[in-house]
Specification:
Layout (H helix, E strand, L loop, with lengths): L5 E4 L2 E4 L9 E5 L6 E5 L11 E7 H10 L6 H6 L2 E2 L6 H8 L6 E7 L7 E5 L5 E5 L8 E7 L15
Antiparallel strand pairs: 1-2, 3-4, 5-7, 6-9, 7-10, 8-9
Length: 163
């Protein structure tokens, strides 16, 4: 006969079962019984991929912001009152539409969860929701920065692994 490891939460009996959001569950059938033993050997929750958003800007503007400790945006950002970002899926169209023919650009990746409530996703081009930051950006929040080459069509070349 199988004795399950049960505990009670309030009036509800609860059995430990593997959860899909945990890695490392081991399942061993107990010999000679109809029981199964579950054991956790690494109960660290799986982390979702970091939700990166992207900013394209002239390298010198970004370097100046790093020295100042604050990025207030490019001229269009200052005019609109927020810093324009793009998601990975929006980035190629943004590069082609707004940065064609420009060189000396960098791509800045930022974790959107690090920006708090000053980041808003708002309808823009074609009704798609674009990330807009209604505050200055601390350059230290950048996950990475990469120079952008110019393609044969004159648009910045976005790395293939960004989607």
């Amino acid at each position: 006969m199988c004795r399950e490891n049960r505990t009670r939460i309030g009036n509800i009996p609860y059995s430990m079962r593997p959860q899909s959001d945990f890695r490392g569950w081991a399942r061993d059938d107990l010999p000679g019984t109809d029981c199964t033993r579950y054991g956790v050997y690494n109960a660290e929750p799986m982390r979702r991929p970091v939700p990166l958003i992207y900013k394209i800007c002239p390298e010198q503007l970004w370097r100046d912001a790093e020295l100042a400790g604050s990025f207030n945006g490019a001229a269009i950002d200052l005019a609109d009152g927020y810093i324009h970002f793009s998601t990975g899926g929006q980035l190629r169209e943004t590069a082609a539409k707004h940065f064609a023919g420009q060189s000396g650009l960098v791509l800045i990746a930022v974790d959107d969860t690090a920006l708090g409530s000053t980041l808003r996703y708002e309808p823009s081009r074609g009704g798609a929701l674009f990330p807009h930051l209604y505050s200055a950006l601390d350059p230290k929040t950048a996950r990475w920065i990469a120079p952008l080459a110019t393609g044969t069509n004159g648009s910045p070349v976005i790395p293939e692994d960004i989607s």
